[in-house]
Write a structure and sequence with these properties.
The chain has 17 helices and 35 strands. The chain is an alpha+beta fold. The strands form 9 sheets. It has an 8-stranded mixed sheet with strand order 13-14-18-15-21-22-23-30, sandwiched between helices. Strands 1, 6, 8, 9, 11 and 12 form a 6-stranded mixed sheet that branches.
């Protein structure tokens, strides 16, 4: 009986973890007044010393100390977060300094039963114990914003962002951006302007000197977002121009309609440097605007030798117009993250860009529009909107590149886990950014077939209603958007083609229901640990299968669970879950990048049994409606695209390969012929049926003509340019039996004639 009572007592003690009132009687026993055991130590700062302090890591440590401080000397994290957000308007990067000492309860105190509980469930330390706590020194400094798109940056350390809970007095602060330790004095409330010569990640060193003679050097990082590792295709600095839509859009939950803002850059051809054959490249999902126009252009890279689809078409006389969706403020206090904004508003930006380019371009060449990923939905919406509203888009070809026409997928297990760690008892501020900027963004809610908000219990921010069958989209976002897109259909005045990165023969990424992590443990401190279970969504017809479980545990003689959260999933009878379906793949770690610097999350991501999942199902990229996401793509599959490219193996999302580049180039460079009323070159005859050559007769001289032959599907099988002939002219060619069309085009006139080979 005594053993049973002891276990119950220990469990009650353990359950008090993370509830500050339970630790109240230990306050006067501490020297620092900061008992770190009151929070779950995701930062691992008492057990691991990080050499480089990132913005995110600083924020996580700050948040943990702020909650663990009995005296509440630090402002709540939301104030620090607001300071970082204000940098968008002030154009200054705020610095923050944290000097503190914290304490943790020694493991042996628990093991020796030197902590008990009173009748109020409060922890009580044995009065004879004089050495119950271990002290940890914490000295951190970092920018509160991790990146900038400008090479010239102003940093500022405001007095309100200097946090010191110790008795030490700071005498001087210095910072250096060079490897030769050229220290600049940091004057409080005075900006420091730094001109970085290149883009990329930068090292920053801070030196803190105290009046007692101590000093501390702290290393941090900052990133200038841009393309220093790429040759700018325009040969100089980024030439992006701002563009504002003329058609406003008000999204769900917004109090007003806003005009979308974008930025674009024109990469003229390498032939005549005249804007006459535009190809629009429309950026996809990019929360935080991590890509500038040059980096978007680099998405056209392929192969191992630095080939680039954009460079190839520019050498053929085409001009590439890149459209980016940056962060912007349409009114005071409002920030719109264009890379993750409502698809409709971004589509209105493209509408305006097409209008402006059509007004500028020379000649009568029609446009080509390429939309990778979400850019494919933006392009589709914009082109169809223009048709429905009698706005001329003058576009001949729309290329959808692994775009989620029927929705996208992120494993619901990961969504549950990230959201619980962010907004549950742990308060992981690094993952709060991931959840808010990625999963809670309007675009993600519109596109994700399965969204964690569709599974939440009524009134809960984190706990799942495990009776919901998947997939369940975000309420008020997913279904209305898909219904609108379906009702609009596809552009009708363009040739619509698609590239999929997903397999067409049923090849899977992993298997339905497989474990991604199975009872994996991450030690947070000597007395705290986290345990993870994550699985792919289950096979067809399986209900209530675990897909995610998080457990926070504390050691008191043995490990006991303090709090936990579980998510189950149920697949319909028609299809297994999406996570392992054929499709363009995405890396889990890429979604967790926003939380990089959190040691617990880094450990979790580094030990996944499989790090890829189906992001854009093949069925979705080809807009093939089928209740089974694992169905093979065959000649009888009904797709709205006139032709498609589908690989035999699943590829990383928006990956260009030799195969799909050849497919795209064939469509861009060799537009199919039509029978639309050409002005005939009189007296030209073409002999039928065709044998081993095509025979043409003209009684007059035809100069500098272009001759092309296409098959019945509209694909070119022969092209010859700069042809001059009179009388009989033969084209040796070996054609398969069937129908063809030949087009003879001179400077001002042309003829299209039917060919028969039998």
């Amino acid at each position: 009986m005594k053993t049973k009572i002891t276990l119950i007592s220990l469990f009650t003690i353990l359950f008090s973890f993370a509830q500050n009132g339970k630790y109240e009687l230990l306050k006067d026993k501490t020297e620092t007044n900061i008992l770190f055991d009151q929070v779950f130590e995701l930062s691992k700062i008492t057990t691991e010393k990080k050499e480089i302090i990132s913005s995110l890591y600083f924020k996580q440590v700050y948040h943990e100390i702020q909650r663990a401080d009995y005296l509440k000397r630090l402002p709540k994290y939301d104030i620090l977060k607001k300071e970082a957000e204000n940098a968008f308007f002030s154009k200054q990067i705020p610095l923050a300094l944290l000097i503190s000492e914290v304490e943790t309860i020694k493991t042996e105190v628990f093991e020796n039963h030197q902590i008990t509980k009173n009748n109020r469930e409060q922890l009580v330390l044995d009065p004879l114990v004089s050495d119950a706590f271990q002290k940890h020194k914490i000295e951190l400094m970092a920018p509160l914003v991790s990146k900038s798109k400008n090479k010239t940056v102003e940093f500022i350390l405001k007095d309100k962002n200097i946090f010191n809970t110790t008795s030490k007095t700071i005498q001087a602060i210095y910072m250096s951006f060079t490897e030769n330790d050229l220290w600049l004095t940091v004057s409080v409330n005075q900006p420091i302007k730094v001109d970085f010569n290149t883009y990329g990640k930068k090292s920053i060193s801070f030196k803190i000197e105290f009046t007692n003679g101590e000093s501390k050097v702290i290393k941090s990082t900052f990133e200038i977002k841009g393309s220093s590792n790429l040759a700018n295709r325009n040969g100089n600095e980024i030439l992006a121009e701002t563009i504002t839509a003329t058609i406003p859009f008000q999204g769900y939950g917004e109090s007003a309609a806003y005009l979308g803002q974008g930025e674009y850059e024109i990469y003229l051809d390498n032939v005549d440097q005249v804007l006459d054959k535009p190809i629009f490249l429309v950026d996809g999902f990019d929360p935080g605007d991590t890509r500038d126009t040059n980096l978007i252009y680099s998405l056209l890279n392929y192969g191992t030798s630095g080939e680039n689809l954009g460079d190839i078409v520019r050498n053929e006389g085409f001009d590439v117009v890149v459209l980016n969706f940056p962060q912007y403020s349409p009114e005071d206090g409002v920030i719109i993250d264009g890379g993750a904004d409502f698809i409709q508003r971004n589509a209105m930006i493209l509408v305006e860009l097409i209008n402006q380019i059509n007004a500028q371009k020379v000649g009568n060449e029609q446009n080509v529009v390429i939309g990778p990923s979400m850019g494919g939905l933006i392009s589709r919406y914009a082109l169809r909107y223009m048709e429905q509203n009698q706005i001329e888009h003058d576009t001949r070809l729309y290329l959808s590149f692994d775009s989620p026409h029927l929705g996208a997928n992120v494993p619901i297990g990961f969504q549950h886990l990230f959201n619980y760690m962010a907004f549950g008892p742990l308060g992981d501020v690094t993952l709060q950014g991931v959840v808010n900027e990625v999963f809670k963004s309007p675009a993600a809610k519109q596109m994700l077939l399965d969204h964690f908000e569709g599974h939440l219990q009524s009134g809960s921010l984190t706990e799942f209603n495990n009776s919901n069958q998947l997939p369940t989209g975000a309420p008020n976002f997913r279904t209305p958007f898909q219904n609108e897109l379906t009702a609009m259909g596809f552009p009708t005045e363009t040739r619509n083609i698609a590239i999929s990165n997903g397999s067409g023969n049923g090849t899977m990424t992993g298997t339905p229901g497989m474990f991604v992590l199975n009872d994996y443990t991450v030690d947070a401190s000597s007395t705290q640990r986290a345990k993870f279970d994550v699985r792919f969504t289950p096979p067809a017809g399986i209900s209530n299968q675990l897909v995610s479980r998080f457990r926070a545990q504390q050691y008191i003689l043995f490990w006991l669970t303090v709090f936990s959260s579980t998510a189950n999933a149920a697949s319909p009878s028609t299809s297994s879950g999406l996570d392992s379906a054929p499709g363009g793949m995405f890396n889990v770690a890429d979604f967790g990048t926003g939380g990089s610097g959190n040691p617990t999350l880094d450990d979790f991501l580094a030990n996944l049994l499989i790090d890829k999942f189906c992001f854009i199902p093949t069925m979705s990229s080809l807009a093939i409606t089928n209740p089974n996401w694992y169905t093979n793509v065959t000649g009888s599959s009904e797709t709205p695209f006139v032709t498609t490219y589908v690989p035999t193996e699943n590829e990383a999302h928006v990956t260009l390969t030799e195969g799909n580049v050849t497919f795209a180039l064939n469509e861009i460079l060799n537009p199919p012929l039509t029978l639309e009323q050409p002005e005939l070159l009189k007296n030209i005859t073409v002999k039928n049926p065709v044998r081993n050559s095509v025979e043409i007769f003209s009684p007059s001289t035809i100069s500098n003509a272009s001759i092309s032959i296409v098959d019945a599907s509209g694909k070119k099988v022969f092209v010859q340019k700069s042809v001059t002939f009179e009388g009989n002219f033969q084209i040796p060619i070996n054609l398969m039996n069937g129908f063809y069309f030949i087009k003879i085009e001179s400077t001002e006139k042309s003829i299209i004639h039917k060919l028969i080979k039998n």
